[in-house]
Amino acid sequence: MSEIPLSARARAITDSITLAITARAQTMKAQGVDVVSLAAGEPDFASPDAVREAGIKAIRDGQTRYTAATGMPDVRAAGASWLSRVFGLNYAAGDVIVTAGAKPALMLGLMAICGDGDRVLLPAPFWPSYVDIVKLALGVPVIVPAVPEQDFVHAGAQIVRAARDAKAKGIVLNYPNNPSGAVPTRAQVEELVAAALEAGLWIVSDEIYARLIYDGREHFSPARCSGAAERVLVVNGGTKSHSMTGWRIGFLAGPRHVVDAAGRIQSQAIGNACTISQRAVLAVCNESDDAELRARLRAFDERRRWVVQAVNQIPGLTLATPHGAFYALIDARPVCRRLGYDDVELAERLLSDAKVALIPGGPFAIPGFIRLSYAASMKELEEGVRRIAAFLS
Ligand code: PMP
Ligand code: GLU
């Protein structure tokens, strides 16, 4: 029988590179290969006890049925209070919907505001899934080239120019940034938001790493900028700060008519976020003592400091200190030139020959760089970096 082609949309979508390389490292490990995986963007800590207990209690109490597609009313209310208490945002329960993770929140938000070839700016470097999520929303991703010389934070004028050139309708901002770890100052955020507003853009602000910040820096949400509330969609949740990657739970907040539209899309495409996970995320929203979070942060910080000094000792590699998230974006351009590889081939060789899994910068729109995740034990980091150094020498 002749083959019926897949849809154009399906053909336009690639596998998630971060998930694919992580899975490949896991398969190699299962085959008995001694791989050090510094690929996954996933905390290596267990979910906090309070989260797990809340999930267990939900199951015991029989909270296993459908909920409203936009989420249980008390979870929406708790999400709104959490966004206010922790991030200084001003949302009512009706402005927040509960989603099956930050990824679906991005998908639903982008589907609500763009389509039919609308251009969406992606300031590089960016999490590779943005490209495919914009395409799934029938938009067109437009890369704004990375500015490593500006510590990876674009100036307002660069955004205005890119928006005008592309006739863009939206922009995705992600601070703290995956993969650069950039955390802009309040003034920089205000400049970016003023530029986006001047250019008439929707702003999707992915703040999933907002609580993983070091060096006394602070997160300032674009939604707090003057005049921004009507134009900004905020994506957040406990995925990274509370090691909840597998629970598939998050929040989308923004102007009421936009989150209502996103909720309608969710009602048809997904239904509700897992009921048990909704009860579990309440433990994040209602957390009154953040001592455990601070302990996890201290562990990430210790690893970060170690990685920065260790990587910078390897000839040909440089690493600017990341101030947020848990990634090290290593400049490997001199090494690539010397070996005649691009970053994809370099990562490939590091995995096949040195048995250390990293993600190439190309899919993040920062070719010549490689991303190392320091959400791994010190032992793994030491061994991984030792292997990289040995391979390159
Ligand atoms: N945004 C960024 C920048 C990420 O790195 C990730 C990776 N998980 C996500 C969103 C998705 O988070 P979630 O697991 O909550 O869907
Ligand atoms: N966001 C994580 C990363 O950047 C992995 C999960 C995913 O890509 O969905 O590695």
How is this structure best described in words?
With 393 residues, the chain is an alpha/beta fold. It folds into two domains: 141 residues, Aspartate Aminotransferase, domain 1 (Alpha-Beta Complex), CATH 3.90.1150.10; 237 residues, Aspartate Aminotransferase, domain 2 (3-Layer(aba) Sandwich). Helices cover 43% and strands 13% of the residues. The protein contains 14 helices and 13 strands. The strands form three sheets. A seven-stranded mixed β-sheet has the order 2-8-7-6-5-3-4, sandwiched between helices. It has a four-stranded antiparallel β-sheet with strand order 9-10-13-12. It has a two-stranded parallel sheet with strand order 1-11. Helix 5 packs across helix 9. Bound molecules: 4'-deoxy-4'-aminopyridoxal-5'-phosphate (PMP) and glutamic acid.
List the helices and strands and how they pair.
Blueprint: H1 8-12, H2 17-30, E1 36-37, H3 49-60, H4 73-87, E2 96-99, H5 102-113, E3 119-123, H6 129-136, E4 140-144, H7 156-166, E5 170-173, H8 186-198, E6 202-206, E7 232-236, E8 250-253, H9 256-269, H10 275-285, H11 291-312, E9 318-319, E10 327-331, H12 333-339, H13 343-352, E11 356-357, E12 359-360, E13 369-373, H14 378-392
Parallel strand pairs: 1-11, 3-4, 3-5, 5-6, 6-7
Antiparallel strand pairs: 2-8, 7-8, 9-10, 10-13, 12-13
Helix pairs in contact: 3-10, 4-10, 5-6, 5-9, 7-8, 11-14
Bound molecules: 4'-deoxy-4'-aminopyridoxal-5'-phosphate and glutamic acid (GLU).
